[in-house]
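REVIEWER CHECKLIST
Item 1: Sequence provided? yes
Item 2: Single chain? yes
Item 3: Sequence as submitted:
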Amino acid sequence: MKQFNRIIISGGGTGGHIFPAVAIANALKLQHPDIEILFVGALGRMEMEKVPAAGYQIKGLPIAGFQRRLTVKNVSFFYKLAKSLWMARRIVREFQPDVVVGVGGYASGPMLRAAGWAGVPTLIQEQNSYAGVTNKLLAKKAQTICVAYDGMERFFQAEKLVVTGNPVRQGLEDVTDKRDEAIDFFGLDSKKKTILLIGGSLGARTLNRSVIKHLETIGRSEVQFIWQTGKIYSSETSLALQNTGFDNIKRSDFITRMDLAYAVADVVISRAGAISISELCLVKKPSILVPSPNVAEDHQTKNALALVNKNAAILIRDVEAENKLIDEALRLVNDIEQCRVLSENIGKLAKTKAADTIASEVIKLAKKR
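Item 4: Structure as written out by the authors:
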């Protein structure tokens, strides 16, 4: 029997796809140090920068998203799709992977299609509680589907499902002893409570504008904020904060040490992406979720409700956030009993070692081939 040694991991677009992909790659390397891993992403997307920074090789496809409204951009979509499929087939032929893993994002579609045509086993990592159209289509040919939620047989064949949880970035398994380090890292006051606001790796306009609208309230409160704005909102948020004189708001485009940010946070405000929720469960933080309305099938609201229905988080809708979010966060951070209950309940939903479990499923597929 041929010894397996090559794996392709495909997908990206946001940190919510990239960080789990890197976590799976790291777990594969730990289990089999000699394994060769190639990433395939979409040209111009953040995986083309983040994956090499994590120490892995990546190839880019020209694939882009299909716009759901009538737009001239869709004229080029079919050309990019055809070219991406051709390139994906060539990558499979040249690299000769034993398994191809799809983590979501534009590149997953062409790459898993090409693998299926070549008879290469595929594994899908479905992050959300509501499966997207692309993964439903790809799942028909996939051998294994790793999911984070129970009840996913309503979307996929039950015999293919493995409940693994979502992989999260390294360093989050235990952040309880990092508070002092976090206070020094962010330049915080150890006597004040801290609210962490994160809009995902690319930022979130609504969350940023909620802060901007209430800067005076935040600045005069006895609470400090760590505010991740996203790179594209850097100028707008910096300008808003300039000359306010408030030293209790620590703003940055991107937080490199999320383990420290979580360690010091008393309350977290976040979008409701699947990976964000998995991280919040793992670090057991009282959370206010503001689902993005700009996602397929409104899956972030469904993700959030899975927690809200278990009294494990608070939900504020995007349209209400600018008026309600900051006041609710300042109320919650001072409600010791509600914070305790939310922390306890969200911690019950955590699934640990997800990356290790998925890596084991990948290796199991490779050995069967």
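Item 5: Key structural point noted by reviewer: The chain has a mean pLDDT of 91.
Item 6: Recommendation: ____
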